[in-house]
Design a protein that fits this description.
CATH superfamily of the largest domain: Butyryl-CoA Dehydrogenase, subunit A, domain 3
Number of helices: 11
Number of strands: 10
Strand content: 15-25%
CATH class of the largest domain: Mainly Alpha
CATH topology of the largest domain: Butyryl-CoA Dehydrogenase, subunit A, domain 3
Order of helices and strands: HHHHHEEEEEHEEEHEEHHHH
Strand order of the largest sheet: 1-4-5-8
CATH architecture of the largest domain: Up-down Bundle
Shape: globular
Helix content: 40-55%
Length: about 375
């Protein structure tokens, strides 16, 4: 395996790093723990899009940039070092754009993709429901055919970007155990959103969405009747990989800050970096981080080849998110009492890392996916 970045990746990441420092970070006030406003969210997407973050997965054949998943993952990891919230905003928008590119009719593509690519609009996906969790087949949101329209009714939960997105890709039942995807436009069709307060990643919108007999035209059906579950499961591979890149960014920053602090903080007449127990903690953190990177990059590389990576994505997600949590916790330990205060960033890293062990399959759900792939036996039923 070749672990060196290509010249193109090096140049891309260098330009992207400069953009993050000069244009993105100055817009984000880390002391304010509330969701990006719609105005700011759109401003961020507009800045990121030219670099292929936010809609970069749209292929060149549809006038997109066509960024491969590994390069994209490296860029999301880099952004997450400064703002995992902004990375989450862009990653969810990215997934919605790709669903339109892969499944939309020519009319839908022509209507939405140019505006997505130029940063004018962006979207999200609405899958989870109250009381359902990872059991997608138990969803109750329905889309009933009515002439040349569908009427969508139901409730979705844990919808990232809900309050700031211009449209949603909604998974709904069109018949018993028949799942289909629909593009629902906020301005054209309307839906109600209630923001959900949460432990961490508080700048990244998450909402509860109510669809009360929302009428959408049949051309807003993506991929045909009954294709929604298959596309959703493929999307979970991507989601697990890119949740993992957010975890890498958080872990990277927590480790860097701990190394720097350990060299500056003195105790018993020398920097605490010179104490064996501190070096032990740093070594454990670095090992966890390096292992997580390798697992995530492997999954992204497989996906970049156009292959499914259900096993590799589940392994990467379950390990990387838990590793980030361990690293953030040890970073607090190294910082001592300062690590518990809001004057330092460690408590935020810890809260953000803790958030990532839940979405797109909890650690335990991903362990069951791993077990099923290894044994051929399904523990879900």
């Amino acid at each position: 395996m070749d672990f060196d970045l290509t010249d193109v990746q090096v140049m891309t990441l260098d330009g992207w790093d400069k953009c993050i420092t000069k244009e993105i970070v100055p817009l984000i006030d880390h002391k304010i723990d509330e969701p990006f406003s719609k105005k700011l969210a759109h401003e961020l997407i507009e800045i990121m899009n030219p670099f292929g973050v936010g809609s970069g997965w749209v292929p060149e054949s549809l006038n997109g940039i066509g960024v491969d998943f590994l390069t994209s993952g490296l860029m999301f990891e880099k952004l997450s070092q400064s703002s995992p919230d902004a990375a989450g905003l862009a990653w969810v928008a990215e997934g919605a754009a790709l669903k339109i590119a892969n499944n939309g009719s020519e009319g839908i593509r022509n209507q939405y993709l140019p505006r997505i690519i130029n940063g004018e609009i962006f979207g999200c996906s609405a899958i989870s429901e109250p009381g359902i969790g990872s059991s997608v087949r138990e969803m109750r949101t329905t889309a009933k055919k009515d002439g040349k329209y569908f009427r969508i009714s139901g409730e979705k939960m844990w919808v990232s970007n809900a309050s700031v997105a211009d449209f949603m890709i909604v998974l709904a039942l069109t018949a018993e155990q028949e799942f289909s995807m629909f593009l629902v436009d906020k301005e054209q069709h309307g839906y109600e959103v209630q923001e959900i307060g949460k432990l961490g990643l508080n700048k990244w919108s998450m909402g509860q969405v109510l669809f009360d007999n929302i009428v959408v035209p049949e051309e807003n059906l993506l991929g045909g009747i009954g294709s929604g579950l298959r596309e959703t499961m493929k999307g979970f591979d991507r989601s697990r990989c890119f949740v993992s890149t957010l975890a890498l960014g958080i872990a990277h920053t927590a480790l860097d800050e701990s190394i720097q602090y350990s060299k500056e903080r003195t105790q018993f007449g020398k920097p605490i970096a010179g104490h064996q127990l501190i070096q032990g903690l740093l070594a454990e953190m670095a090992t966890d981080f390096s292992a997580a990177q390798l697992l995530v990059y492997k999954a992204l590389s497989i996906m970049s080849q156009g292959k499914r990576c259900e096993l590799e994505a589940a392994i990467a997600k379950s390990f990387a998110t838990e590793a980030a949590l361990r690293i953030a916790s040890k970073a607090i330990q190294i910082h001592g009492a300062f690590g518990l205060t809001k004057e330092f960033t460690l408590e935020r890293h810890f809260r953000n890392a803790r958030m990532l062990t839940i979405p797109d399959g909890t650690t335990q759900i991903n362990q069951l996916i791993i077990g099923r792939k290894l044994t051929g036996i399904d523990a879900f039923s």
